[in-house]
Amino acid sequence: MKKSLKAALFSGLVMPGVGQIILKNYKKGILFISTTLICLSYIMVEATKQATLIVDKIVSGEIEMTESAITAAITNASQGAGKPIYTIVITIITACWIISTIDAFISGKKIDEKEKQQNNGNDTNS
CA–CA separation, 95 vs 116, rounded Å? Predict the structure, then answer.
């Protein structure tokens, strides 16, 4: 498999930055990975806060322990995901995914071409 395709697939399907790591472009890879992980961590922390609030309300009796009451509480909490910060975080993650996939493919393509030229040069020297 060509390095360009392999790197693009890893960045696109596994995690942004993994393709760059495969291509030994560690600085770019770490930048994409860390940015994505920071954004995902923010989402997880906020989701955990919301879940804890709902559980506390259930325990205290503010929310009935029925499926419909809990579903309504979850729906109300998830509407907070429309805050601008969530939009920014999701946009950053999406941008990292797209940019890292394209970058991995382009960088891999350059490596593929160099290797092809080196192989052609070796074939003519033989």
Answer: 31
**Which structure tokens are listed for 98?**
């797209």
3 located within any domain: no
CB 111 within 8 A of CB 92: no
Count structural domains, the chain: 1
Is residue 2 a part of any domain in this protein? no
Q: pTM value? A: 0.79
Residues 23-48: tens digit of each pLDDT: 999 999 999 999 999 999 999 998 89
CB 53 within 8 A of CB 77: yes
Identify the domain containing residue 70 by its residue range. Answer: 15-104
Tell me, what amino acid is at 15? M
On whether residue 22 sits in a domain, the answer given is yes
